[in-house]
């Protein structure tokens, strides 16, 4: 199963440009799970605006949307800064965690207190899991990053073990799950398995929560190290993880196919619009219009300033390109407190449908209902 999981991931990298842009929106469910329980959750459009707000002034972005956008940022950091480092250090993990929780310094740094999962907020007597005492955490993290920096196992095995061990150490007082899931992407990218694509593996693990918890519980065994029982416990977790990777690859490939079909529709609409306007030639590959189209899955909400900043074109060229895409019904205009935004609604809707599908244990909401709160149908 491990080799099957590796082959399924490698198969995504042939043409993964769209997946690299869109999968960060799939990952947003990790950051908004608690707000959805309370009935408060940003739409994918709000999240896109919050992400844009990191570079430009964007009015009226909700706090929940900023939280989700920030989580996407740490996933990207896990795939860039930690991948580019010659060796990952514990400080990299501390910095990644701090970036996840801006404005919450009470949670920064490696914990110095006991924490636990489940049960009472006041004592660990009824907890589902009690991590190691705080005094052991620094040495355990040193051991973890030493393993992360090596290549003694296949990428899938290494990613699964790094995630399980990080969650078992539980080194922070908050945000352990999100950091631990980001480290899956760190390992897979450092090992060259996901050079472009970002797997929605954490969403699949969330959907298959009972298997996920059972796998982690098996991993947290008390058998003698090196014994047959200890190997069996670790193998049980890795089977769960490998199945999640295979499913995530299949769903990511499905999303890629949908995006490819959407691109074909865009090309037809744009060609028809240009013909109606008397343009005989196709859009040049280096034009602002073509550049915007290529990046739309990754930047489905943008402004004229966005186009100028990303593509290095003039204000006039950006305006003309955006107007052409609006005329072709690829972009839709939205004015917000004096700022004009352009949305690729079909991309936002596609991400919403994908998130709904990934919340079903059969990955089809017609066959089984979502197992967690999901956005409304577009």
What's the structural blueprint in terms of helices and strands?
Elements: H1 2-10, H2 17-26, H3 28-37, H4 44-52, H5 63-84, H6 90-100, H7 137-148, H8 155-169, H9 176-190, H10 201-207, H11 209-219, H12 228-276, H13 288-295, E1 301-302, H14 304-311, H15 315-327, E2 332-336, E3 339-343, H16 345-358
Antiparallel strand pairs: 1-3, 2-3
Helix pairs in contact: 1-12, 2-16, 3-5, 4-5, 5-6, 5-9, 7-8, 8-9, 8-12, 10-11, 10-12, 11-12, 12-16, 13-15, 14-15
Pfam families: Fic (PF02661)
Domain Fido: 88-240
Protein name: Fic family protein
Q: Write the element-wise H/E pattern from the N-terminal end onward.
A: HHHHHHHHHHHHHEHHEEH
- Class of secondary structure makeup: mainly alpha
Strand line-up in the sheet with most strands: 1-3-2
What's the overall geometry? elongated
- N- to C-terminal distance: 36 Å
CATH domain class name of the largest domain:
Mainly Alpha
């Amino acid at each position: 199963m491990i080799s099957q999981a590796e082959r399924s991931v490698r198969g995504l990298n042939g043409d993964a440009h769209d997946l690299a842009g869109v999968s960060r929106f799939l990952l947003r469910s990790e950051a908004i799970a608690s707000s959805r329980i309370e009935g408060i959750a940003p739409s994918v459009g709000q999240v896109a605006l919050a992400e844009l707000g990191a570079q430009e002034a964007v009015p009226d972005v909700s706090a929940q949307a900023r939280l989700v956008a920030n989580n996407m940022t740490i996933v990207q950091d896990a795939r860039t800064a930690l991948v580019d480092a010659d060796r990952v250090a514990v400080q990299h993990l501390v910095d990644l965690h701090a970036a996840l929780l801006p404005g919450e310094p009470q949670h920064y740094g490696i914990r110095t207190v006991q924490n636990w999962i489940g049960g009472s907020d006041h004592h660990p007597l009824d907890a589902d899991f009690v991590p190691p005492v705080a005094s052991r955490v620094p040495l355990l993290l040193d051991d973890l990053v030493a393993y992360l920096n090596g290549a003694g196992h296949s990428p899938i095995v290494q990613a699964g073990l790094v995630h399980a061990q990080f969650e078992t150490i539980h080194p922070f007082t908050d945000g352990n799950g999100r950091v631990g899931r980001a480290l899956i992407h760190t390992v897979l990218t450092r090992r060259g398995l996901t050079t472009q694509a970002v797997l929605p593996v954490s969403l699949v693990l969330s959907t298959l929560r009972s298997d996920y918890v059972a796998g982690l519980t098996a991993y947290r065994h008390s058998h003698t190290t090196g014994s047959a029982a200890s190997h069996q416990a670790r193998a049980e977790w890795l089977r769960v993880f490998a199945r999640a990777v295979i499913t995530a690859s299949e769903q990511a490939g499905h999303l890629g196919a949908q995006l490819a079909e959407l691109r074909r529709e865009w090309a037809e609409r744009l060609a028809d619009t240009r013909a109606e306007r008397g343009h005989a030639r196709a859009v040049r590959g280096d034009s602002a219009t073509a550049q915007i189209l290529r990046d739309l899955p990754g930047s489905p909400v943008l402004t004229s300033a966005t186009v100028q900043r990303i593509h290095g074109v003039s204000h006039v060229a950006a305006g003309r390109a955006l107007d052409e895409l609006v005329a072709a019904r690829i972009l839709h205009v939205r004015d917000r407190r004096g700022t004009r935004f352009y949305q690729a609604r079909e991309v936002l809707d596609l991400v919403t449908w994908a998130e709904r599908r990934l919340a079903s244990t059969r990955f089809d909401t017609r066959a089984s209902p979502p197992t967690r709160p999901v956005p409304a149908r577009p």
